[in-house]
Amino acid sequence: MKKTFLLFVPILLINIYLHFLYFKSSVYQTILINDLSQDLYSLDINDVEKINSKYPTLAINTFPIATFKARYFLHYNNIDKALSYSNIGIENNPYLADTYYIKSRILINDNRLNESLKNLREAYKLSKKKDYIAALYFTVLAELGLKEELTENYRYVKLSNNNNIWRFYLSAIKKFNSLDEFYNQTLRDYNIKID
Asked: Is the torsion defined by CA of 155, 158, 162, 167 positive or negative?
């Protein structure tokens, strides 16, 4: 009986430790999720550094903990750590558009617009309905002079009922004088859509 009990003690201790890590993570997750939704940064960077992003790897909302950390490191202008955590976030959940979006913002902040575009393409492919992703994607396309790719995306914009997506798209195509006719037609389509 004593041997059996001693056999279960290490398992019990490991279980208690894992539950402690999970509890500690859930406390931080509440703060991180609230900060993301409110566009806040209420944790000190040293506190963010201490957050365990390896267990659990995903927050209760399926966002990788590493993605939250990348957002903070971008805010504190630590590009290397922000990129590292965004890569981990993509690895932990490659189907989350927001991690690609955050990585693209990091790359833009580091003046790497072409690399940012690759991540924006992936983010937009995963979630065409998020206006903040569409806005940055269309803006970068216009900034890089990629009017063909911009006009090709009209097929997705015209399916959208989000006024912001239409406005960002119209703003991006307006930057090209050669697209005046296309701009006018798109504007007519938008006015019909909102009526």
From this structure: positive
Q: Where in the chain is the domain with CATH 1.25.40.10?
A: 20-126
Question: d(Cα 86, Cα 5) in Å, to the nearest integer?
Answer: 44
42 φ, ψ (degrees, to nearest 5): -90, -10
- Helix axes of 97-109 and 131-143: crossing angle, nearest 10 degrees: 40
58 DSSP β-pair partners: 64
Global pTM reads 0.89
**Homologous superfamily (CATH) for 20-126:** Tetratricopeptide repeat domain (1.25.40.10)
Whether omega before 56 lies within 30 degrees of 0, making that bond cis, reads yes
**Confidence at residue 21, expressed as pLDDT on a 0 to 100 scale:** 67
Ranges of residues in the chain whose predicted pLDDT is under 50: none
